[in-house]
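Private note to self, pasted from the team thread so I don't lose it. Backbone tokens:
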């Protein structure tokens, strides 16, 4: 019997031993498999009952790279109110259970009150809809990127004597990378 944690997790969900031992060396983890759609899992020779058990499990954590990207793009502030004193939550714009999408494009940073609005129903619809959230996210991330370019520019303009202390090529690379 395997003692590898990934294989044990797959076996616990009803996957046959041989398949678990084949998938793990190929780089498959429980989290990666849970994010795949049924057709992709079928292509890996996973049977329907195991696919159902994989998708029935709790949502896997957001990959750290995606988490850092979305938090940085929003400057760790809610894209709705931008209140720096409020704690934030990373929210799936399209619910993970429907989209299986942990990409930064589907993630938005919300403060806890706005996160509650994104999950609560008003009279006819969700108080903070996915469409409203997407617009707020894109607007705020665009403003934050422009502020970065402006901050880089302003930091080189404050005192002429400091101009020589900057790595100008790196400043231009940063401006280009941020769309400037």
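Design output:
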């Amino acid at each position: 019997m395997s003692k590898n944690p990934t294989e044990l997790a797959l076996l616990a969900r009803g996957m046959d031993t041989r398949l678990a031992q084949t998938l793990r060396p190929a780089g498959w983890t429980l989290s990666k498999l849970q994010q795949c759609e049924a057709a992709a899992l079928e292509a890996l020779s996973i049977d329907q009952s195991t696919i159902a058990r994989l998708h029935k499990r709790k949502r896997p954590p957001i990959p750290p790279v995606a988490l850092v990207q979305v938090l940085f793009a929003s400057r760790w502030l809610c894209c709705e109110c931008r209140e720096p004193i409020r704690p934030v939550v990373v929210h799936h714009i399209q619910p993970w259970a429907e989209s299986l999408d942990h990409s930064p494009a589907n993630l938005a940073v919300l403060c806890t009150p706005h996160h509650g609005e994104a999950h609560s129903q008003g009279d006819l619809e969700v108080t903070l809809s996915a469409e409203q959230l997407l617009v707020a996210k894109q607007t705020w991330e665009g403003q934050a990127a422009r502020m970065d370019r402006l901050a880089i520019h302003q930091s080189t303009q404050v005192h002429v004597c400091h101009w020589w202390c900057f790595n100008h090529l790196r400043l231009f690379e940063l401006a280009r990378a941020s769309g400037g």
